[in-house]
Amino acid sequence: MILTVLCILALSLSNDVTASFRVEDVIVRFIVNATPVLFPPSRVSLQLCINYDDTIKLSRILSSNYLTHTIHNVYEEFEPKIYNDLEHRNLYVLDLDCDYATDILRQAHSKRMFVAPTKWLLFQDRKITIDNDDNANLTFVYDDSILEIFEDLAIYPDSDVILMRRFDDFFELLSVYRPSPQRGVIWENRGNWTIKNGLQMRTLDVASARRKNLQQTALKSCIVMTDPNTINHLTDFKDKTIDPVTKANYPWILHIVNRMNATISFEVTNSWGYRTENGSWNGMIGMLERREIDIGGTGTFFVSERIGVVQYIQLYTHTCSRFVFRRPLLSTVSNIFILPFQQNVWIAIAVFLILVFCLLHLSIKWEYYRDRLTESATYWNQLNPNKPTVSDNILILLGAFAQQGYSYEPYRVSSRIVTLMLLLASLSLYAAYTANIVGLLQSTTDSIQTVSDLLNSPLKLGAQDVVYNRYYFKSFQDPIRKAVLEQRIEPKGHKSNWMSIEEGVRRVKNELFAFQGEIGTVYQLMQDTYLEEEKCGLTEIDFLKILYPLLVIQVRSPYSEIIKTGALKLREYGLKYREEYRLYTRKPVCSSHTSFITIGFTECYFALVTMGYGILFAIIVFAFELLWHKR
């Protein structure tokens, strides 16, 4: 349908009616057989040397086939809206026999219109008729001079430019591209079409598969290093805790470039690249934006403000920066003295004590008044010389419940039953309570699971002092993350908690401390320096909320599809995982929970507080008793 355009074009190249009918039939056959394989666009921009009447006829044909189109029969500037929107739907058709064909090609070159996903279909009739000197006979010569212009055009491996040359009823299909600005034009024989045999394609491979040989093209890259000594250990797997992303990505770049049959040179910078105050970008991202390098040599995080500045390649480095800490003991964040029993159990115990108190009070009071009038009064007075009071009942209750003993001796059956019930219940509850306390003293808490929990926890916080951590910490606007930075990482009037990764890992081991750092490096240091029981309870909290680092290239890079395919091949062949497994340490396995639990003031905090309040209350009561006694 689309290449009905070719019919009009061919007719415009012929002057005799008989030839036009013959060519039209040939082109229609070509449309039916060839266009579904070559181009399926839905919008066409045509540059043809046809008159006004033929333009009207052509537009009617395209409209009848429901095809959006523009037709130009004179030289015009390309409108930006034509080639900037939905470029994957655009097909540009150009007759190379037009006088202004060269100007059109140069304009497309200057506006980078040969870059994917735009498509071009060029026509050339190799037979040009000229007169001899005697103006009597006609001869045929071939003129390929216009094809020399491709030596200077930006038609690189991602381009889709097809030249169709007509030899009467034979159509030759050629693709043209240049491996790089340093290399000359390469013509690919894509096949041919004839009436008898139809479309004969030499290959149906996509351009990235056909053009992956860049013929030793010199590419440029940039690697990010926070330590200058990294340049000496890019491939020997030494100092794995320093610049691990750079050391993992460097061999990946070499594999991809080797697959492309290219060479590469590296520049070194200490910054991934961030937007400056004047709106420009520095570091590796700035080099890609200014097209100073072809591919980024170190993976970078996927953030919204870099979209449109660079193009991300789906080749992840499985590492990230997170808060890592050891789950603290439950006793450091909770009052474990109320945790052995659930709330309902505590309520039941309180009801039980009230009931026992009432029964004990009644039984003791009845026992006292009854035995005063009998012959056993003397014996009873020997056991309990004083008249029982409410405070005595409370002390009896608390002494039995706390396993501390009491001075009262029950005499009658009823009081003995109540006291025995109290002692048995107290013994059972005490055994269960102390057993649970021992278990809770060795238990860790899972209550710290979010950034908000981390902010409100008793853990101290610190962060690895690297450029991207400082940048992202200060870029967050939500109140919780801002509070983490302002209150815990950079508290006013105190020393900031930016530190080396070695110091952070040491403090996680020895203190209630959470450290924000690159987890592969953190786990490697923990694997080397922690005891087996110290590797248990390690927990992560994602603070930055960003994806794994990815490789980046120029926006609309001519090698994007070749690099993407190479990245997929790295994963398929296992070369990607080889570097990661050797450079990145997974979370240490907890193989032994056996260890001695040291109980200190932190674990006994709530017990000490309770005792302190008890002592304070006793002093206050004692003072009131003294005042009462004096009066």
Report on the structure:
This protein is α/β, with parallel strands linked by helices and 631 residues long. The strands form five sheets. An eight-stranded mixed sheet has the order 2-1-3-4-7-8-9-10, covered by helices on one side. Strands 17-16-18-15-19 form a five-stranded mixed sheet, with helices on both faces. The protein has a three-stranded parallel sheet with strand order 12-11-13, with helices on both faces. A hairpin with an 8-residue loop joins strand 8 (170-177) and strand 9 (186-194). The longest helix is centred in the middle third of the chain and has 29 residues, at 343-371. The protein is elongated, with a radius of gyration of 43 Å. The N and C termini lie far apart (116 Å). Mean pLDDT is 81; it is low at 1-25 and 135-141.
- Biggest sheet record: 8 strands, mixed
**N-to-C span:** 116 Å
Uncertain segments of ≥5 residues (pLDDT<50)?
A: 1-25, 135-141
Globally, the shape reads elongated
Radius of gyration: 43 Å
The computed structural class is: alpha/beta
Beta content comes to 15-25%
Proportion in helices = 40-55%
Count of helical regions: 21
Average of the residue pLDDT scores? 81
Total strands: 20
